[in-house]
């Protein structure tokens, strides 16, 4: 037997496998990137900085992460790829050294009304198994504890092949689900205000139905007029009981209208199916206004809002039902799970306990598992997605974060920094797009993009250490140590908005007078009740314009001109100048190029491979029919106008032959929020998160209202842009508006006339007013967490 000799000749030399320690990007040209080349160290924390729209997301998400995901998808068979989203290769010359990318972005959670914090993190699934094993009385499998599974039973004959003979047998089956039969697992029941559905003095032919999308000429109007269940010429108030029941409540029934076979359903089942199946936050504004007007939601009296059947609520472990467990604050639930000593389900308790502890560790211990996922803010949604990665054993993975400090109080940012460093220290590459100096400070490597936004950006202006960034002359470097000072004097309130007994979510009967005519900042740690107070008790009032963090939804056919309503006055101006109809000047209507249908590009679908988009040869990407481009306004055709920047268009429509006051007013607002560089015809899909937020703000600034509510307007804003935002807020207040801002950014707090601080903690440890007064008083008192951090920020 021979002994294998081990040589250490290579121990001093670097193994060739260890030489791939860089992610190399050369010649990236996605969106506004101008042949960008960078080399990023692996197993380090790299932060990407730069003004909003400078190209950070284009480099990190649309180039590095997108190519990593595309290459992973290509490892699957063609059959499997057919079921996956097809991704095109980013426009880049070289991408080397990529590892598997896990993206943790700011996208809000799905707006399905059945989705809760527990269902999106799998905590509910583990709880259901736990109760099906340990719950007493035992009521069935884990399905018996799911509010998305209905209890059904049935019986009938089945035909079986047995010994070459067909045999009929009677079979019975039953499924025990946990869904409350009254509210069907939604937790609330809806009651309709019939006066908002129809005008009973009119007949259907006279347009009695007032539901959006149910006009007399529309498809629904034709169905209701031609169904034959009632006379369309008879006023609704003269309907018999039977006719009114058929109009409002009739179950889906097969009918024939105008020679077409279709299904008729009463107005209320139809509205429940088309409108109420969506979360309120995901509805279009006019649909949301109709639902708020027509539908009254009340807690289900049978399940008391728990969504669960009586049987599911009756089964308990140590006196706690699954409904009680889901309603607990997660930090309390984690303690309850740790207290269960059951060897039979020990692995399950360990995994569930670890998941719940991750919530607490990440600063979300104040949530409950029954909280609808659509109500989470962007920052909360992002941290909820992080939970599944915290306990992961994977290493050498690239984690990509999009502003992970969004929605975090300065007190919580240190905790987030520690989590990012933990992921790095496990041997992972961490890429972070970030604006907050406290988060940039922990970077091993910084890539600063700029020098400005849009076409004036897309270049790497600095690459190196944080100290190097400070010393560099870039916009980020110059503003890195900026600190806003407290205002020497504050404005005097002109009145007050009274809130009494506010108890939404965790608020504990809050009474507060919010000053009017000044800049009010509402602050407090994440989960202290800021949004609950303002959106629950202020936003719905008359004259209040609320601008939330909800994402702008838009296809590649949508652009700033269509989103803000700017295109309407432009089309009318072109039509008037040329004596033709306005529809010709829309690429989504009559003026569209017939070859590409107004898209400007031809899409070729290649099944499981990425589709190819080629510029339309007919219109050369201009999107309009050739004849439309012969019509001019101020010497420009419609495609040239849509290619203008906001600043150029503002000048164009401000004076001379093309003077259009309605268009100029909208462009003024876009320039006021710092979007002067945007092209008005640029697809919304190419805009960054910060640009979309400001586009939304500019749109709402045109609404009639005396009070503006802004929810974290600094989201996605560079340090330099925060100064512009403060100037905009001042202009709003000076013009006679009242501005209420929910914010964590210390520069905005320092600039406020009045601060309302909630806390002292999160969840049931918060929900109280801990300070009201001027920023100077808050700094002097230092009695709250916010006061301490603001004092440190202003250096007092």
Features:
alpha/beta, 6-stranded mixed β-sheet, 28 helices, disordered N terminus, UvrABC system protein A, ATP-binding
Question: Could you characterize what this model shows?
Answer:
InterPro entries: ABC_transporter-like_ATP-bd, P-loop_NTPase. This is UvrABC system protein A. It contains 28 helices and 27 strands. The chain is of the alpha/beta class and 796 residues long. α11 packs antiparallel against α12 (346-361), α22 packs antiparallel against α23 and α27 (775-781) crosses α28. The longest helix has 18 residues, at 56-73. Residues 1-11 have low confidence and may be disordered.
Unreliable parts: 1-11
Main sheet: strand order: 5-14-15-3-16-17
Shape: globular
**What's the main sheet like?**
6 strands, mixed
Rounded to an integer in angstroms, the radius of gyration calculated over CA atoms is: 30 Å
DSSP, total strands: 27
Number of helices: 28
Secondary-structure-based class equals: alpha/beta
Share of residues in helices: 25-40%
Strand content: 15-25%
Distance between the termini: 78 Å
Q: What is the overall pLDDT average?
A: 88
Question: Helices and strands in order, then pairings?
Answer:
Layout: E1 22-28, E2 36-41, E3 45-49, H1 56-73, H2 78-81, E4 92-96, E5 101-104, H3 117-120, H4 123-134, E6 152-162, E7 165-175, E8 188-192, H5 219-226, H6 241-248, E9 253-257, E10 260-264, H7 267-274, H8 285-294, E11 295-299, H9 310-314, E12 316-317, E13 320-321, H10 322-327, H11 330-338, H12 346-361, H13 378-390, E14 398-402, H14 410-425, E15 429-433, H15 437-440, E16 445-450, E17 459-464, H16 466-471, H17 475-479, E18 495-502, E19 510-516, E20 519-524, H18 530-537, E21 544-547, H19 560-563, H20 567-578, E22 601-606, E23 609-615, H21 638-642, H22 646-652, H23 661-672, H24 689-700, E24 707-711, H25 719-734, E25 738-742, H26 746-751, E26 754-759, E27 768-773, H27 775-781, H28 785-794
Parallel strand pairs: 3-15, 3-16, 5-14, 14-15, 20-25, 20-26, 21-24, 24-25
Antiparallel strand pairs: 1-2, 1-4, 6-7, 8-11, 9-10, 12-13, 16-17, 18-19, 22-23, 26-27
Helix pairs in contact: 4-12, 11-12, 22-23, 23-24, 27-28
């Amino acid at each position: 037997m021979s002994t294998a000799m081990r040589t250490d000749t290579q121990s001093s030399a670097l193994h060739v496998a260890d030489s791939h320690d860089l992610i190399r990007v050369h010649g990236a040209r996605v969106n506004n990137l101008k042949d960008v080349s960078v080399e990023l160290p692996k197993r380090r924390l790299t932060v990407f900085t730069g003004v909003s729209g400078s190209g950070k997301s284009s480099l990190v998400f649309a180039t590095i992460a997108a190519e990593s995901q595309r290459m992973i998808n290509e490892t699957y068979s063609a059959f499997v790829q057919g079921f996956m989203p097809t991704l095109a290769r980013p426009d880049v010359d070289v991408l080397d050294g990529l590892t598997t990318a896990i993206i943790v972005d700011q996208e809000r959670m799905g707006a399905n009304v059945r989705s809760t914090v527990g269902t999106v993190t799998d905590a509910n699934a583990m709880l259901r198994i736990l109760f099906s094993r340990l719950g007493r009385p035992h009521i069935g499998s884990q399905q018996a504890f799911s509010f998305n599974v209905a209890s059904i039973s049935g019986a009938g004959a089945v035909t079986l092949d047995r010994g070459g003979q067909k045999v009929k047998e009677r079979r019975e089956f039953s499924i025990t689900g946990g869904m409350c039969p009254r509210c069907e697992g939604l937790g609330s029941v809806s009651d309709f205000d019939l006066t908002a559905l129809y005008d009973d003095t009119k007949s259907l032919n006279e347009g009695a139905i007032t539901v959006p999308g149910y006009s007399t000429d529309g498809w629904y109007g034709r169905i209701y007029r031609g169904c034959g269940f009632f006379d369309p010429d008879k006023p609704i108030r003269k309907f018999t009981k039977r006719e009114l029941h058929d109009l409002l409540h009739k179950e889906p029934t097969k009918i024939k209208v105008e020679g077409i076979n279709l299904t008729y359903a009463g107005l209320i089942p139809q509205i429940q199916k088309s409108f109420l199946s969506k979360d309120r936050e995901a509805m279009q504004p006019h649909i949301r206004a109709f639902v708020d007007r027509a539908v009254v939601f009340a807690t289900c009296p049978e399940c008391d809002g728990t969504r669960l059947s009586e049987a599911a609520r009756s089964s308990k472990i140590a006196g706690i039902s699954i409904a009680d467990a889901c309603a607990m604050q997660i930090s309390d639930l984690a303690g309850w799970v740790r207290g269960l000593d059951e060897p039979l389900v020990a692995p399950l308790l360990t995994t569930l306990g670890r998941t719940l502890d991750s919530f607490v560790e990440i600063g979300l211990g104040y949530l409950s598992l029954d909280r609808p996922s659509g109500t989470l803010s962007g920052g909360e949604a992002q941290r909820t997605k992080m939970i599944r990665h915290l306990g992961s054993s994977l290493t050498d993975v690239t984690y990509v974060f999009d502003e992970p400090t969004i929605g975090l109080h300065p007190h919580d940012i240190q905790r987030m920094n520690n989590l990012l460093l933990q992921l790095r220290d496990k041997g992972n590459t961490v890429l972070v797009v970030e604006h907050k100096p406290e988060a940039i400070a922990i970077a091993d490597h910084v890539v600063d993009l700029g020098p400005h936004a849009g076409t004036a950006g897309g270049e790497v202006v600095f690459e190196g250490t944080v100290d190097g960034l400070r010393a560099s002359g870039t916009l980020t470097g110059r503003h890195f140590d900026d600190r806003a000072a407290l205002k020497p004097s504050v404005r005097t309130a002109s009145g007050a908005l009274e809130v009494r007994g506010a108890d939404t979510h965790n608020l504990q009967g809050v009474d507060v007078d919010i000053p009017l005519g000044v800049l009010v900042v509402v602050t407090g740690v994440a989960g202290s009740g800021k949004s609950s107070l303002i959106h629950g008790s202020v936003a719905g009032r008359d004259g209040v314009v609320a601008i939330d963090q909800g994402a702008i939804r838009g296809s590649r056919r949508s652009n700033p001109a269509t989103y803000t309503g700017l295109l309407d006055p432009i089309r009318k101006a072109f039509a008037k100048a040329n004596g033709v109809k306005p529809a010709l000047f829309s690429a989504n209507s009559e003026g569209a190029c017939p070859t590409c249908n107004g898209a400007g590009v031809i899409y070729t679908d290649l099944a499981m491979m990425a589709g190819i988009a080629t510029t339309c040869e007919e219109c050369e990407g201009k999107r309009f029919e050739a004849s439309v481009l012969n019509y001019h306004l101020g010497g420009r055709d419609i495609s040239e106008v849509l290619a203008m920047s906001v600043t150029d268009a503002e000048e164009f429509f401000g004076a001379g032959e093309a003077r259009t006051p309605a268009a100029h007013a909208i462009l003024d607002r876009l320039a006021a929020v710092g979007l002067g560089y945007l092209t008005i015809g640029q697809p919304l899909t190419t805009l960054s998160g910060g640009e979309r937020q400001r586009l939304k703000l500019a749109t709402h600034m045109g609404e009639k209202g005396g009070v503006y509510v802004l929810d974290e307007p600094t989201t996605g804003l560079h340090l330099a842009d925060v100064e512009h935002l403060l100037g905009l807020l001042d202009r709003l207040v000076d013009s006679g508006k009242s501005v209420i801002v929910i914010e964590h950014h210390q520069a905005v707090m320092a600039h406020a006339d009045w601060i309302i601080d909630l806390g002292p903690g999160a969840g049931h440890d918060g929900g109280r007013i801990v300070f009201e007064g001027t920023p100077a008083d808050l700094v002097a008192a230092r009695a709250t967490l916010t006061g301490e951090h603001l004092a440190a920020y202003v250096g007092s």
